[in-house]
Design a protein that fits this description.
Layout: H1 14-17, H2 27-39, H3 52-79, H4 82-86, H5 89-112, H6 117-146, H7 151-177, H8 183-187, H9 189-202, H10 216-224, H11 227-251, H12 254-277, H13 285-306, H14 311-340, H15 344-371, H16 377-424, H17 438-452
Length: 453
């Protein structure tokens, strides 16, 4: 089984890493903001298409296309990395742009009477698929790009990316909803800028990482090291999707449901940047179980009492926690790809695909729950209780896994110490190989003389 590749960690101060930051390293933020504006706002939809039902349809179809693209490209790239290198990034940029145009055009055509509401669904669905395919490619491509960088760089770059993403979302949604700026005019440059930054980043030299090889064993080992992340992603993504959809349905507006949560993401991003720069700590999975999971346990415990009056505020807490967790996913995927010298697209595609599946399940639960007439208080209590239970089990799983890893490490250390102690002892030859003592030689000489006499 291939072992984790060990390389000397860079000792440079985290406060100096910011000097390596360039605008191209933040290109992920342009793509991320574009996808958030598609999924977590309704600025692209108008007329008969601007309803929570069609907003949910766009999210589901785009997520399925996104996940399918990730899995397909990852499966081919794992066997032959040159397959990814042959994919034209510009084609996926065109796919996103075309998808955005079709989604916007469906509402305009419906409002102008050019298409009936039923016929207007066709370009809406087609646009959602095309946008989802492009988003899936860029998600994996940025994971591939960040996986070539030293973890000390990505641990700082990613919180800055989250900050820029949230700022773009808040600014663009405000300009569109409050000032009347056409959403398409704001969003179309974002995927183009992301591609340009990605191309520039791919031309940089890799940070002291061996070449990627088609070694399935190495990929299994890399994914095995991310078991805790994958399990946490399943749980948190499902709960995030559930709260997301419940909030959208409660306030009947994706914009109102996500405006305040994205402002909270700005605060969370600033806190992460301070953690990395001043506390000199990297964002790892331990942050999830020490900070995020306890906060969410309290959130779901209080949800039945405050959901009817403060749905947006509860979604704000959930969104801020998941925003931090998203950064942790990006960082751990990139650092794992770097440490094991594997493709970031493969590792990131699998982790992200699993996260999307869980989020779709949560969105489905929230959507079905809100279809029930009246206030489904008992159902919310049931789901909240289940959420607390699952989060508690997730925490116990992490603690048990850390104890198991600690015991394994302690056992290995004890064996190494014992081996070193044995090696330091003087080696005693077996009796038949020991040199004869002086007294024994004299006795044997006397025996020989007597026998001769």
């Amino acid at each position: 089984m291939p072992e984790r590749l060990s390389r000397p960690r860079d000792r440079r101060s985290m406060r100096m890493v910011w000097k390596t930051l360039r605008i191209r390293h933040l290109g992920l933020a342009f793509f991320w903001a574009c996808s958030m504006l598609t999924f977590r706002s309704s600025i692209l939809l108008s007329g008969p298409m601007n309803t929570t039902g069609y907003q949910t349809l766009v999210v589901i179809i785009s997520f399925v296309a996104n996940m399918t693209t990730l899995f397909l490209v990852a499966s081919r790239t794992e066997r032959d990395h040159s397959f990814y290198d042959k994919l034209p990034a510009s084609a996926f940029t065109v796919s996103i742009v075309t998808g955005l145009v079709l989604m916007t055009g469906s509402g305009m055509a419906g409002s102008a009477g050019l298409l009936t509401e039923t016929m207007a669904v066709v370009p809406l669905v087609l646009g959602s698929v095309l946008a989802g395919v492009g988003y899936g490619y860029f998600w994996g491509s940025w994971a591939e790009c960040l996986g070539r960088m030293h973890p000390s760089r990505t641990s700082f770059y990613l919180p800055v990316v989250l900050l820029l993403t949230a700022l773009l979302f808040v600014a663009f949604s405000f300009c569109s909803e409050e000032l009347g700026v056409p959403a398409l005019l704001l969003m179309l440059p974002l995927p183009v800028l992301s591609q340009l930054c990605l191309t520039r980043c791919n031309r940089e030299e890799t940070d002291d990482r061996p070449a990627i090889t088609a070694d399935s064993g190495r990929y299994r080992t890399a994914l095995g090291s991310l078991v805790s992340l994958i399990v946490a992603s399943l749980v948190l993504s499902c709960l995030f999707g559930y709260v997301w959809q419940m909030t959208v349905a409660s306030v009947d507006s994706a914009y109102e449901a996500h405006r305040l949560p994205l402002i909270a993401n700005i605060v969370a991003a600033v806190a992460l940047i301070g953690l990395v720069l001043f506390a000199r700590r990297r964002t790892d999975l331990a942050l999830t179980f020490k900070v995020i999971v306890p906060i969410l346990v309290v959130l779901f415990a209080l949800m039945p009492m405050f959901w009817s009056t403060y749905p947006v505020e509860l979604n704000t807490v959930m969104s801020a926690c998941y925003g931090v967790f998203d950064v942790i996913i990006w960082y751990m995927v990139a650092s794992t790809a770097y440490d094991f010298s594997v493709s970031g697209f493969v590792v990131g595609g699998i982790v992200r695909g699993v996260s999307i599946i869980a989020r779709l399940v949560g969105i489905g639960i929230g959507y079905l729950l809100m279809l029930i007439p009246g206030t489904p208080s008992m159902l919310i209590v049931g789901v909240s209780t289940g959420g607390v239970y699952v989060l508690a089990m997730l925490g116990l799983f992490y603690v048990a896994r850390k104890k198991s890893e600690g015991a394994t490490t302690a056992g290995s250390s004890a064996k190494r110490i014992e081996s070193a102690a044995d090696a330091s002892k003087p080696q005693t030859a077996p009796p038949h190989a020991r040199p004869e003592t002086l007294l024994l030689r004299r006795i044997r000489r006397v025996q020989t003389r007597l026998s001769t006499t």
